[in-house]
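assembly run, all chains below
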Amino acid sequence: MATVQVSEAEKVYILHGIRDDLRVDGRGCEDYRHMEIETDVVSNTDGSAKITLGHTAVLVGVKAEIGKPRPLVPNEGYLEFFVDCSANATPEFEGRGGEELGTELSNTLYKVFNNKHSVDLKSLSISAGEHCWVLYVDVLLLQCDGNLYDAISIAIKAALFNTKIPRVHISSDDEGGKEIELSDDPYDCMRLDVENVPCIVTLCKVGHRHVVDATLQEKACSVASLIISVTHKGTVTCTRKVGGGSLDPESIYEMTEAGKRVGKALHAPLMKLLQQEESLGTKRQKVGFLG
Amino acid sequence: MLKSKTFIKKTRSGGVMKIVREHYLRDDIWCGSEVCADCKQESTVLQGDACIESNLCAYPHYLIPDTNVVLHQIDVLEDPVIRNVIILQTVLQEVRHRSAPVYKRLKDIIHEKEKHFYTFTNEHHSETFVEREPGESANDRNDRAIRVATKWYSQHLKTSAPDAEGLKVVLLTNDNGNKQKAEESGLLVYKCEEYIKSLIANPELVDCLALSNDDKNEVTSSKVLFPEHLPLSRIQAGIKSGTFLQGTFRASRDNYLEATVFVQGEGEDTTEVLIQGLQNLNRAVHQDVVAVQLLPRDQWVAPSSVVLQDEGTAKDDDAEEEEEEEKALRISAAEASRKPTARIVGIIKRSWRPFCGMLNTSQIKESTRHLFTPADRRIPRIRIETRQAATLAGQRIMVAIDGWPKHSRYPNGHFVRSLGGAGDKETEQEVLLLEHDVPHQAFSQAVLSFLPKMPWCITPEDMMKREDLRHLTVCSVDPPGCTDIDDALHCRELDNGNLEVGVHIADVSHFIRPGNAMDKEAANRGTTVYLCGKRIDMVPELLSSNLCSLRSNVERLAFSCIWEINHKAEILKTRFTKSVINSKASLTYAEAQMKIDDTSKNDDITKSLRGLNKIAKILKRHRIEKGALTLSSLEVRFHIDSETHDPIDLQTKELMETNSMVEEFMLLANISVAQKIYDEFPDCAMLRKHPAPPPSNYDILLKAAKSKEVEIHTDSAKALADSLDMARVDGFPYFNTLLRILATRCMMQAVYFCSGMDSDFHHYGLASPIYTHFTSPIRRYADIIVHRLLAVAIGADSTYPDLMDKQKQSALSNNLNYRHKMSQYAQRASVAFHTQLFFKSRGILNEEGFVLFVRKNAIIVLIPKFGLEGTVFFDKKDKAAPNLVFDEEGPSLKVEQHTFHIFDRVKVTISLDDSNIQHQKIRMSLIDPVIPGVSVPVPDVEPQAKKPKLDR
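ok done. output:
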């Protein structure tokens, strides 16, 4: 991943600042940077969202396709994640450079969504054991400026919120043969309930304290960080520790608590924002990638 | 401005796909009106004074029809009276989607300058584009788009055409909802019927109106006569699961209650399914693609051999019904060998076209509803509404089917146009061309624009690329009166003692370049159609009779095939070249024959002809030794009166040695070319094959020969040819010819095909392993393709993608085969019609003939003198049938005491039966042998029949 070179003096400056709850860019320890979200940015997906967080930019597209349900859960659909680290984001991703990171990110996403509550997978079932919707969630990193996990998770939540799955119904003829019929009204579609979709909060241990939404410089000063995915109710669906250093149990507890607090606070304005955008309907001026 | 159109589609594998298309809106789409001052258009289509006498719209106006009006009332729109119409892009697209034939007709109208039809691309106009709203169906959106465009037009004309006072636009729609909404938004809107009826000056247009749904309801009683057709989705599901079968519906010519459906199975094989009874036929019309459901085995029936014609009249629908059912029952009772029988559950695709036929006027004088009887017996009668019944009676007219509701005995249709009086030569010719789907319109301007500019001459560049063969003594030999000469020959002695023989074929592919309008038209026409006294050209006349025709003493471009042959007629060398020739003489077969026979002549042409004739004889002998068949069919030639163009005499064509001479070299050229193009392009050579007939085809021939104690071997073409040569009966010189006629009937049809799509190339009749058509490019399109292939093979011309595409080649050969078959049918029909004319002028004739076939209730008699075949029926409607015993093995038919065998000599009287003016036919009755109650007395051979001829 993208790294920056930070000198000893800078490190000390950053460390001391954080100790006093004042970060280099003026934020407090539990503050996010400025965040911009736009949904419905890629017209040939079924749902999409673009997010910029600081200079980190992430695009998420959701494609709904009809597939076969997994044998163990015949009455549920499923989600597939793929993270593409584009060489646009940083030259290090060129060739197969981004592959490892991409796999790591997508594995984390599988873990985050691997529970009954995040998404109502039963609603994705079309006919038990035969057909279900498979949502392909494709994440594209456009620019890396730290805190990829949080940005990706927020973008996924927004994209899932925006996803419109064409409504289908099963018609069966006299012989019991089943046929999927598609509604011919393009506006006739199904929406997902994204209330319980968790967001990831990454906490970076810097010195004795921890910060959310670390910049690359702060990251360089950190020994280890904790990834916590939190739902709007504060339920933690997944935690992971990343980074080379170790964390003592006490600080893990502290960080988890902080993560829950921050996560809960993140969900409410996000949902409000998404609903507000939705209510504008087709009259909304689209910003897109050139805005 | 950019918009995107999004729609969701189901993929073939069952998935769902979202498709997004970019859609650009523009602000430079003009209105097309002459009077508009704002639009910066270069040329205008719509006239300023768009006046038509209407008591609804007294002001000048443009019409905007909606999709359904175009789809259903295209016949009205085609009328020259209807002009200044705006066709919206929305409408055009929907029409294209829903009906390809209507779309084509609409495009033709739009291209016609005098019609002033303007296409307005409203979907791309920034002010008239509408996006589909939530909850709105696609149709509703289109209707709204039409209304928005109409609104735009009415405002646009108001503001930008102040000079044209009162110029308005009128929306035509038959949809009540749409009409109401249009009225609400202040548009001028009428129903199509309302509007057409308001055209005071043109009442005849009303007849062309197709019946719309609400009209149909009042026409007939609510009684349901037919089972409902299943919706397409059910049919598709049924076909998928195998409960229904899909096939092409073929009505029976002889029995209106019977039909067969050809179901295409896996691969090549097709199965025939029988359909019997009005209910089971369920409103299918000949050539429709239908879905059928097989009946349980115990309800299977056998095809009846009874001839049933629908004689019912319009008014007594109900009484008729029981009678029909009765008839149908009688058929099923008489069955012996059952066949798979089915009923029709739905129609997948209608293939309705305008049908030619005649009107049966209703007995009620004031009635406007009449029944129409199509010329093709396989098409049911059609109920139409017309006020011009009195004028139309006795005329050949065209009628289109609009629909067939389930409570109506007959389909509903409307009058399209009149072709002329029945029995007129021109009218009948038109009818037979239309009925055989022969494209016979004059060539369009687009086609003619590709003709070379006159005066045309051979340029030095042409000369550079071609071999100069002008010094050779080339001559052509053709039937008399031939103007499209596509072959010429030469023969000269070389210094080494061998002979050089050349076949020179008109270089049509030099003039017709691939892909242009002329090429496409020729490919569609496929062949020139020769009718009696009329030729329907495949290429414009300038080419067929002038520039391509290898006339004498002019320089012409040719494609030459030149052999070096020794005196034993062995080919030593073959080469092909594009050339320039100068034919020294255009001879007829008779003239050429005279030159050869006249020993006093010794000029170059004669020497050349003699050389050719000598080689041809040897070639023919070789060919026959290899097993080529000499078959026989009688061809008739009419002597046509030069003034009235009526046939005044009839004789069978006479064959001379020179006929066979020319034929021999054409065969040689075709085979040489076939080999060459196949060697060069094994995947995409256009060849012609003649499959060997299946052994069962020969049954009739074998039985017939056996009855005269002659043995015919059919194991191979060679065996057949030899045994035909041996077959002679003392005192019956005509026997051999009759046998050959019979053998011809056993043969399969020769077809064009693409070498990459087939593995069997054999030409059975010619006993050649490979064959193609190269020698008549003026009148056959296949030859043009072969010319192009050969030109590419020898590096004389460049190739193009379609030529090398075996799928396209294959599709093309299918069309050529179809056109070829239809042109033969048309030709036969034309001969039959002229034969009728001839017998009409000659009255009753007594002639001697031979029994060609024996049927259950009739014998088919051939009159060699006229090459005419006719049927002598032994059972008549109004008389009790005589005692008939049919023996299939013989085959023989015992009528009372007399037994008829094949080849029996009989005497018949021939007369014209014009009791049914639509289907006039030659009637034959037996005179000799005399069978009481069956044969007729010998009528006086007409002194009166000669009279009209003498009077003239």
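Chain B has 28 helices and 37 strands.

The longest strand of chain B covers residues 571-588.

not gonna interpret more than that til we talk
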